[in-house]
Design brief:
Layout (H helix, E strand, L loop, with lengths): L1 H21 L8 E8 L6 H20 L7 E8 L4 H14 L4 E4 L3 H4 L3 H7 L3 E3 L15 E3 L5 H15 L5 E6 L2 H18 L5 E5 L7 H9 L4 E5 L2 H13 L6 E3 L6 H6 L8 E4 L10 H13 L10 H20 L5 H9 L27 E6 L2 E4 L16
Parallel strand pairs: 1-2, 1-3, 3-4, 4-5, 6-7, 6-8, 8-9
Antiparallel strand pairs: 10-11, 11-12
Helix pairs in contact: 2-12, 6-7, 12-13
Length: 402
């Protein structure tokens, strides 16, 4: 009997060890470890702080309801300081030392682009919430997904059509930051203005992240006498530029890239944002009087009662929704998730959304661009309000994946 008990105990230990060793990295008996990274220091800290907090709120809600397939979600977060080198180091730590199951980027294109080669080589699934760097999803890689943001080329399509059809603009001046994200938006917009509407911008003026004075660029824009000025960059710089534009007496309409469509820009520009138009990645923005957004903001403020003014931002909302998308992929991956089953789980999502505050996400086995929807908005009375306009030009983005 004693030998039988010893044999049974030994067999149980072997079986347990075998089962544990068969589990994927980051998958434990009671939790799944997700590695996330973004800037919580440096000039783009507004991205990473919001991305981290938005995702953390979602994971907390999910865990309170029992987690996913019996496991709670744990998030290990690393600061990339908006640097490609720092981002790559952060990702290597998360994968090789922390042994996370998957990666979630809530930072900018500049930093995220620095991780793509390594992530492709390792095969670790990575879900990108905010960065629109083209190389995230093109060329196609099975382990890379784009969520709330959209393809940089899609920004170009929609922006170019809006500038040409809504504004009826023939003379356009671009003001773009020199960072990866803004440069990609500008390049894509210029390409589609030329290809679809035979329009070449009058000039393209550049600035740096962290700049505080845009007088020279704005005076140059004014001299070009454009029908519209398009500004692509980050909220802190845009808020200053919008105020200075009005202080200088510029009367031209101003169009902004989607990263600038944020409630904090309105307050920081001190009236300079009134009348500005752009595109939002979600159907309603923080600050909206819609009951669903007010409910979500109340939950966010209960979690972060001491947050600075301007929060929650659109980036909180984007990462919050994408955390739910990630967990839905994990749920579909089954009780013993592997990178492959997780990828298949995400690829099965069609028009999935956590609620009215989020845009739908759809993936296929051929493309991993979750969102192609952009909603036009305008600052009216101190809030971003919907604009009645719809794109009529068919997108060419998905043809690349056929």
């Amino acid at each position: 009997m004693k030998r039988l008990l010893l044999w049974a105990a030994s067999a149980y230990l072997v079986l347990t060890a075998t089962t544990a060793s068969a589990q994927s990295a980051g998958v434990a008996t009671d939790h799944i470890l997700i590695g996330a990274f973004g800037p919580i220091s440096g000039p783009a800290a507004f991205l990473g702080l919001a991305g981290r907090d938005g995702a953390a709120l979602a994971f907390k809600e999910i865990n309170a309801l029992g987690g996913v397939n019996g496991r709670k979600i744990q998030m290990q977060f690393e600061d990339d300081a908006h640097s490609p080198v720092r981002a790559l180091a952060a990702v290597k730590k998360l994968v090789e030392q922390d042994r996370v199951f998957m990666l979630m980027s809530v930072g900018g294109s500049n930093a995220t682009a620095g991780t793509i080669g390594y992530v492709k080589e390792r095969g670790t699934p990575m879900y990108v919430s905010i960065a629109s760097a083209p190389e995230v999803t093109y060329p196609f890689a099975r382990n890379l997904f784009r969520g709330a943001t959209t393809e940089a080329a899609r920004y170009g399509e929609v922006y170019a059509e809006f500038l040409a059809s809504h504004y009826q603009a023939k003379r356009i001046v671009l003001m773009t930051s020199r960072d990866e994200y803004s440069r990609n938006e500008g390049d894509a917009t210029v390409a589609k203005l030329k290809a679809w509407f035979s329009i070449e911008p009058e000039s393209r003026l550049e600035f740096n992240n962290g700049d505080k004075d845009f007088t020279s660029q704005l005076i140059a824009a004014q001299r070009a006498n454009p029908d519209v000025i398009a500004v692509f960059g980050s909220p802190p710089e845009a808020a200053i530029a919008l105020k200075q534009a009005r202080d200088l007496g510029l009367k031209q309409p101003i169009f902004v890239g989607s990263a600038i469509v944020d409630q904090g820009v309105i307050a920081a520009s001190k009236g300079g944002a009134e009348g500005v138009k752009g595109f939002a990645l979600i159907p309603m923005l923080p600050g909206s009087k819609h009951p669903d957004m007010q409910k979500w903001e109340a939950a966010w403020r209960r979690e972060y009662p001491n947050a600075r003014a301007g929060r929650p931002s659109i980036f909180d909302a984007l990462a919050y929704a994408d955390a739910y998308v990630v967990v839905e992929g994990l749920r579909r991956a089954g009780p013993q998730p592997t990178p492959e089953s997780f990828i298949r789980g995400l690829e099965g999502l069609q028009n999935y959304r956590v609620g009215p505050v989020a845009s739908p996400r759809s993936f296929t086995a051929k493309h991993h661009i979750g969102n192609l929807t952009l909603s036009p908005v305008e600052v009216r009375g101190g809030n971003w309000e919907p604009v009645q306009w719809s794109s009529t030009h068919p997108t060419e983005i998905l043809k690349r994946y056929e």
